[in-house]
Design brief:
The protein has 12 helices and 18 strands. With 503 residues, the chain is of the alpha/beta class. The chain binds zinc ion (ZN). It is a single-pass membrane protein.
Length: 503
Amino acid sequence: MRSCLLSGASCHLFCLWALLVGPVWLQNASHHRRKDHGGGDEGVVDKPKLLLLSFDGFRWDYVNRVPTPNFLALKREGVKVEVVENAYITKTFPDHYSLVTGLNAESHGIVANEMFDPALNRSFSMETDSIYDPLWWEQGVPLWLTNQKAGGRSGAAMWPGSDVKIHGEYPTRYLEYNASMPFEDRVRKLIEWFTAPEEQAVDFGVLYWEEPDESGHNLGPESSLMDVVIVDIDEKLGFLRNELKKARLYERLNLIVTSDHGMTQLFPDKIIELDQYVSRDWYTWVDKSPVVALLPKEGRLEEVYSSLLEANPHLNVYKKEDIPEYFHYRHNDRIMPILLEAEEGWTIVQNRSGTFMLGNHGYNNSLPNMHPVFLARGPAFRQNYVKHSMRSVDLYPLMCHILALRPLPNNGSLANVQDLLVVGPSQAPFAGPTGSPSSSSGPPGGVTPGYSYAPTVGSLLGVVMVLGFLMVFVKQVTLKQLPTLPMQSREMSQPLLQEDLHL
Ligand SMILES: [Zn+2]
């Protein structure tokens, strides 16, 4: 290998090359940086955009039972995760808050749809206005607020908690909860917010839809009538895709489609009646089946516990301190002293006078039927890539990364899911749309918005070249006519490697 540094002629050539090329390289790096957050119209500075959509109760395998061309398109255009382990307990409010905080329920404090807080001496129910009391929500900080604190703007269409003034602040734009507002209107509102003038546009949005949860409860997930419901959800996803295309957002926006939990079939003969085993006078019933929270009356803890412990082989009975650590469901005052967990398919009631549902969720989060769907596409994501598994709490650090936000302490891990991204934090620069078998339809210009390390490396190379020139220049001035010295530095001889590359 020849040495450049100490050969007079080569040295002059290198000086000339560095002088000419270095500034151009720096200029190119700067150009890359300007486009770095783009991916949209040429020359337009554009922040990363992210929309998180939850179809409540959309079980992971619903996409396999009827044709769902829009879900299929998302898979082809982006990523799909086959197994998503959601947070325990697998109910709507806890799991939706886990998605936007990255926290397990014991850490974010929304431990159930129905709760009692002994310190506050208040009750929470998703059926009442108690949900608008911010105190329930303030053990966690939802991503829409973190985005706003960092200078972003958030838009929320009826995500649980998003019309509550948490930590003194609402989302920048939001809709008050109104179950009768059509999905299509919610979509139009979000697109209006995303496409507002630069100084008003949101860059992070959350969108919630009540189905197929409601139908799953009423019909049972295994009913053939659910097929129509799933087709309807796919068409709603199709509507969203079309509206995003019409608004010229489709290629610029990162879209994540997921859910809070799945759904399992219930059976009328699989009923556990507590009245058969324990007196109602001994406890307060706090949360409903299939994971029931009981608050024993003063001095009745042991009696309630021992009465139920061997009551039914399809019922797990835990004192709070004995709840398995892997549930991450123990360390919060809102978790009651006794927890009853039904086996999948079983229902816990006090007696049979209540209404009976054909489908339910809330069961152990290791059960496949409790798992939600997960697909994502957009400039941040790889294409046609299927990942085996993740945890729903991993989504929070992933979304923070996409939005270039510093995540708050959370139970998730970006490392667990970074392979979903075009270029992960530790991957090589200049990689472009990596690892994808069909990456040719990547974002315009082949630039990966917000994720390319090319600008940094370009800048560094430019600096190295200019420094190299200066070193050589100084050397030439101070060490004239010296004979050639042995030079071992591979770094400084690298320009010559270019010759080798032509071989
Ligand atoms: Zn739900």
